[in-house]
Amino acid sequence: MSPVFTDPLWRISVCLNPVEADLLHTEPLRRLHFVAHGGASTISTLQSYSRLEHTLGVLALVAHFRPEDELLRVAALLHDIGHLPLSHTFEGLSGLDHHAIGLQLLRTDPIRPVLEKHGISAGAVVAALGTQPPSPLTNRSGLLNLDHLDSYVRSGRAAGRLDTDPAAMLRRLDLEEAAVSADRGTAAALVDLICAEARLHTSWDNVGPVSVVRRLVGQLLDTTPLTPAQLARMTDPQLWSAFDSCAATRAESSMIRYELHRLKVMAGRATGDRLGWEFSLRKIYRSAPLVEGERMETAAPELAAELDALGLLSTEFRVWWS
């Protein structure tokens, strides 16, 4: 990889430090190029960019806001290395947790020797990704962090719903300790993107394919010698190949890719005897930016109300093949 790259979304030019260049040559980082950020919804939408593209976007944001913070830059590169194939699609099955997997990978080959070569301890990177003190990458206080900022804006661009030039937006953003802060107009634009993302996650485009792939993964684990740990380190193409190689999953794997129009989704739990299966979304993301350094509830209550209304979206569904 070139020692300088320009992120195509934010248009930030980043000069890679030696440790960053070395990390980008390792298998856990290269693997992310073959994992779709949008998960199974890449089947039904144009959300086709990879986890590596998102990772480099987060690095670009850290390089913009905290250019001299080497540890935070390294943490940005490594924050997603534990992701499963198709990202969040079957998170939680068989206890699989990408956060835990990522922390384990930080402490083992080939990541640990690269960090040690450059005088960085894996423990320090783990701490930079932790919640105490809150990290600009991963704070879980309900406030917008850099990881989610890149996700919302990058997804908005892929879906054609980004009305603001990201580079111009970035000039109106600040990092207040561990949270993104915006002026009122930019905060409103971000809330629009956050709400659109939540509606995407609760729509047919996401619920249908995600629910099917979760079923297929369960069948794969039940009927083949494949272990959860082996499954977790696959790429997306390897997962589809595994589906196609298994008699229990082959037919439905083909259906979800080539006959997606036959899939039906109904919000809410069905009563009575119905075909299909139930599916529950694990969570709806709605982290809020600060508005000129203040919490949104105080500075822009009307925007906070828009995010609160996302709690009314259904997270329970019935899915079936017609």
TrEMBL record:
It holds the Pfam family HD. CDD domains: HDc. It comes from the Bacteria. Gene3D superfamilies: Hypothetical protein af1432 (1.10.3210.10). Residues 47-174 form the HD/PDEase domain. Transmembrane segments: none annotated. This is HD/PDEase domain-containing protein. The lineage of its organism: Bacteria, Bacillati, Actinomycetota, Actinomycetes, Kitasatosporales.
